[in-house]
Task: structure prediction
Amino acid sequence: MKKITIAIDGFSSCGKSTMAKDLARAVGYVYIDSGAMYRAVTLYSLRKGYFKGQTIDTDALRRDMPDIRISFRFDPDTQRSQTYLNGENVEADIRGMEVSSHVSPIAALDFVREALVRLQQEMGREKGIVMDGRDIGTAVFPDAELKIFVTASPDIRARRRFDELKAKGQPASYEEILKNVEERDYIDQHRDVSPLRKADDAILLDNSHMSIAEQKAWLLEQFKHATGYEAD
Ligand code: DC
Result:
């Protein structure tokens, strides 16, 4: 059966990765979390001391870019994909607040985006992929056969991220997370390079009041429309 490319874009913390992961599993596709790649570059920059507040030593980062290797490996124990930075599993480190509050300026750098978009396009060459992010339907795979643009209200998204961090035992403040969600929305939508926007041919999904099960059924319906194929 002919495989397609599925692009899932939208605001931060609106459950894009959960939905993209579930959909990929249900239809037997590869799932790629493009946000994890921007987070890995952010972690690298923090560790190297390239941040002075929110200002970045772009010359140093630009010079290092060719040596920053990012990959994903599936962990059979947790049944989850893990992000690797230069051979090290950084999955836990890239999800904390320090990386979350520094990632937007990294994602606004043109040379970072160019390198990561190229890598993402390589990963999707064979199709049969579900990728989530901000510019997947507009810049990475403009020809994707199925594009979904997800949104939910900022307070609902902050609550979800708060619950997620709490469940992992990581320190979190709801107010701080809400502020971070709103700031990232603003930067993501207003940056010069590949700002977050819905592709004209993307289907809009507001999941503020949808359960995971309802959302999954909705997604499988869209997949069926796009491919003519019915998944379990
Ligand atoms: O989805 P996320 O919260 O893990 O994304 C982290 C950051 O990376 C977020 O601020 C937006 C940015 N990003 C991006 O600019 N383009 C993508 N394709 C994915 C993420």
In short: Residues 5-221 form a domain with the Rossmann fold fold (CATH 3.40.50.300).
